[in-house]
Amino acid sequence: KMAAAAGAAAAAGLWSEVNRCGQNGDFARALKSVNKILQINKDDVTALQCKVVCLIQNGNFKEALGVINTHTKVLTSDVIAFEKAYCEYRLNRIESALKTIQSASQQTDKLKELYGQVLYRLERYDDCLAAYRDLIRNSQDEYEEERKTNLSAVVAAQSTWEKVVPEDLGLREATYELCYNSACALIGQGKLNEAMKKLQKAEELCRQSLSEDSDVTEEDIEAELAIIHGQMAYIMQLQGRTEDALQLYNQIIKLKPTDVGLLAVIANNIITINKDQNVFDSKKKVKLTNAEGVEHKLSKKQLQAIEFNKALLAMYTNQADQCRKLSASLQSQSPEHLLPVLIQAAQLCREKQHAKAVGLLQDFADQHPANAAEIKLTMAQLKIAQGSVTKACMILRSIEELQHKPGMVSALVTMYSHEEDIDSAIEVFTQAIQWYQQYQARTNQGCCVFQPKSPVHLSLIREAANFKLKHGRKKEAISDLEELWKQNPKDVHTLAQLISAYSLVDPEKAKVLSKHLPSSDTMSLKVDVDALENSHGATYVRKKAGKLTGDNQQKEQGQGEVKKKKKKKKGKLPKNYDPKVTPDPERWLPMRERSYYRGRKKGKKKDQVGKGTQGSTTTGSSELDASRTASSPPTSPRPGSGAAVSATSNVIPPRHQKPAGAPATKKKQQQKKKKGAKGGW
Length: 681
Fold this sequence. Notes:
Layout: H1 2-24, H2 27-40, H3 45-57, H4 61-70, H5 77-90, H6 94-103, H7 109-121, H8 125-138, H9 144-161, H10 176-189, H11 192-211, H12 218-238, H13 242-254, H14 260-274, H15 279-289, H16 300-316, H17 320-333, H18 338-350, H19 354-367, H20 372-386, H21 389-397, H22 406-418, H23 422-444, H24 455-470, H25 474-487, H26 492-505, H27 507-514, H28 520-523, H29 529-533, H30 550-565, H31 605-608, H32 662-675
């Protein structure tokens, strides 16, 4: 009994210590006291709970989860559900955390808060939005601002990743977090200018909020602003201001922020700017995307985009095997996605395996008919690159959902015209017009009012008629022209074309139609012909008629005579031109081609000057050895001084030696000196 009483007293003292340490936030010391309590009673539920809380507060989530799993009989799900789910959440076991929350018998407010976070990480945004709305509606505490911030983050994610038009939550954007989330939602809608203004406001609010704390340094503020600046740079990149975006991205990287997710996104965006240029820089940036924990910080689409860019970078750096490996992995993860197969096809084209690339694309189109249109467009592009225009046309015409589109019709007609296949081009027009006729028939079915042809339909008919007329197919153009005239009987241009076409086929019909042409009186336009002819830009200006007076006529004649007397300027003659001497008739020929050319004269200079280094001669080296002379100069001669060679020496130094023909050279030098500056050495 005495031992039990002593143990109880010791436990009471330890519990007091635990309580005091908990209030002071000293959880490491509290943990020691809890462990002592558990030595007294290892199954104490309260002590076990306190131990788990202390471990969580110290960041030891794995150890805390181990304690919970070890004492499952004592720590049931009702007792420790929140702590277990929180540990699983922090250890990135999101699915397990969701199961733990859902299996709890009682859904406390803490569990509901954690449930919203788990749904956000699982990208179940609709459920997450409903959970936060319920929390905001049924909670009244100091954390209301944080819940609204999380709610706005969910709306921003929906707008960005699911392209859902965000609803107005009516939140007062009083904090920089709310402004930032609002800007992200605007980016998802493509409202870039508005988003930039929101980010600028968020930056201002962030500076104001942090500057109030005296312990926060300028570096801390810049680190907090890094994510806002990163989003600003992203907007610049979307707007085509790549230089500004790149500069801001690099500034953020220099700050070395601790957020690995932010660094990975910025590095990825820089790689997309570099493309196939500056691949060395891109290779360095890829390392930032491989940092530990990145996969838990980014959404699935962000991670997928990073992997796509890694595969493209491998292709640009000629790492064919790595490119194939990455693209194959991406295709296995997302079999219906277009980009992996397009990257594989691009790599095959770089290896000059165009046929294999087309086959790969064809297999994908057969397996995924929903994405066949995009794939077939790529196949057609490859065929055009190979010069197989006709095959490219066949591929394009197989895309049924695009056959009637004006852009597709225009492309096919242009390509067939290039191949001089006019019949196929006309067939393309005919099929497109028939599609619109069938569509109109379906639209008019059950309607008591006749619906007119759409502008696109009429435009196709007109283009078809013009094309046929241009290529001499007037008979085939008649039906199109009649249809156009029927839709607009006041169209004189179409009527004129129709009459021209009928004149070759049925002249009588042409005469009948010509009666519908307006009379010349109604066609006359009130135009000032004189003003038109004399206007700026007219190719012909009519001279004003009228007789000239005698004086004016004489002036005009005098001016004409002066103009006639003008002579061409004489060409400039050379300074040494002598009119008495007959010019050389061969002066226009190169010197080598002239009859009197005898080649270069061989002088003595060539024999005397050596082919060695500067100053060397053909004289023997022994003769030039100054050490063998009676006396040698003590030092090198100073510039401008006289010869420093001894008077007893008969040998002339190499630099002062005169080659043959030197006197003439000397005279020239003297003449040049006279013309030059006054000063000497």
